[in-house]
Amino acid sequence: MLRFDGKVALITGAGRGLGRSHAELLAERGAAVVINDLDSAAAQEAVSAITAAGGRAAVATGDITKDAEAVVNAAVDAFGRLDIVVNNAGVDSPSPFGPTAVDSIRRHMEINFLGTVAVTAAAWPHLVANSGRVVNTCSPTLSGWEGESAYVASKGAVYVFTRTVSIAALKSGVRVNAIAPTAYTRMASEADLPDALKENLKANYTTAMVSPIVAYLAYEECSISGETILAQGGLIQRFSLAMNDGYTNTEITPEDVKDHLEEILDDSSAKPLGVVGSESETSLLDLFE
Ligand SMILES: NC(=O)c1ccc[n+]([C@@H]2O[C@H](COP(=O)([O-])OP(=O)(O)OC[C@H]3O[C@@H](n4cnc5c(N)ncnc54)[C@H](O)[C@@H]3O)[C@@H](O)[C@H]2O)c1
C-alpha cells in the first residue's frame, strides 16, 4: 500500500471539492495535511472532518495570489516540514472572447496560474530539501473549450509550467506533474452546462476517482515528471504534446505551405514530445541535432 507516514502535504483550495478529497485520501494514508482555502469556514470544516476520522490536519487560510509565502510558512510551522504541494485552488468563470477578455484572462491567470507558481516558488526550498512532490491542476478543457478562453488559457499556462519546471526539479530529486480532472463539485455544478450533462457528471464522475492519481503523483517513488494525467470517471490517460514528421523545404515559399498543408498537418507520423532535458521520447533538443 502506498503510505505517506512522516510526510507533510499542503493542498490549496482544499476546503471543498477535489482539494478536500485529495486531502482526505492523503491523510487516510498517513500524511499530515495542511488545508489551504480562502474560505476559512470551509477549510476549518475539512480539518475537523479529517481530525475526527483520525487524521492529522491543520488550517492555512489565505488567498494563494497574495498569501503564498504565509500559507507555506503556516504549513511548515504546523508540522515542521513540507514534502508535498498539491496546487488545486482555482476558479472558472465564463469568458466569451471579446473586448473584456483581457480583464478576464488576467484574473484567471492571477489565480489559476500565478497562484500555482507562487505557492510552488515559496515551497521550493522545502521541496528541494525533501525531494518533494508537486501536483498541479490543469483541465481536460486544455484542448479548447468554447466560451472559456480565460480559464483554458490559464490552465494551458499551468500545463507548460509543469513541463518546464519539471526539468530543473528533476536535478534536485523533485517531481512536478499535473492532473487534468473531471469531477462533480461546486465548480461543475455551477458551470454553464446542460442539465443532462450535470446529471451524468454527478452520477459517474466523482472526486474519489481523481484523488488516487494525485496520491500516486505525490508518492515518494513516483517515477514520472513533467506529465499531465487526465482523470475522468475512472479513465486515466496521458495528455501529450505531439509533433509529426512535417514537411521540409529550405527554400520555402507561401505557395509551398499552401501546396503541402496536408503533409504539414498529417498526424499519422505524430510522436509524443518529451520534456526537454528529460530522457523521455522525442525532445525539442532533438530538432537541432
Ligand atoms: N470539477 C471539475 O470537473 C474540474 C475540471 C477541470 C479542472 N478542475 C480544477 O480542479 C480544481 C478544483 O476544482 P473544484 O471543482 O474542486 O472547485 P471548487 O470550486 O469546488 O473548489 C475550489 C476551492 O478553491 C478555493 N479557492 C479559489 N480561489 C482561491 C484562492 N485564490 N486561494 C485559496 N483558495 C482558493 C475555493 O474557495 C474553493 O474552496 C480547480 O483548479 C479546477 O480548475 C476541476
TrEMBL record:
One of its GO terms (molecular function) is oxidoreductase activity. The keyword Oxidoreductase applies. InterPro entries: NAD(P)-bd_dom_sf, Peroxisomal_Beta-Oxidation, SDR_fam. Pfam families: adh_short (PF00106). Keywords: Oxidoreductase. It comes from the Bacteria. The keyword Oxidoreductase applies. Belongs to the short-chain dehydrogenases/reductases (SDR) family. This is Putative oxidoreductase. It comes from Gordonia sihwensis NBRC 108236.
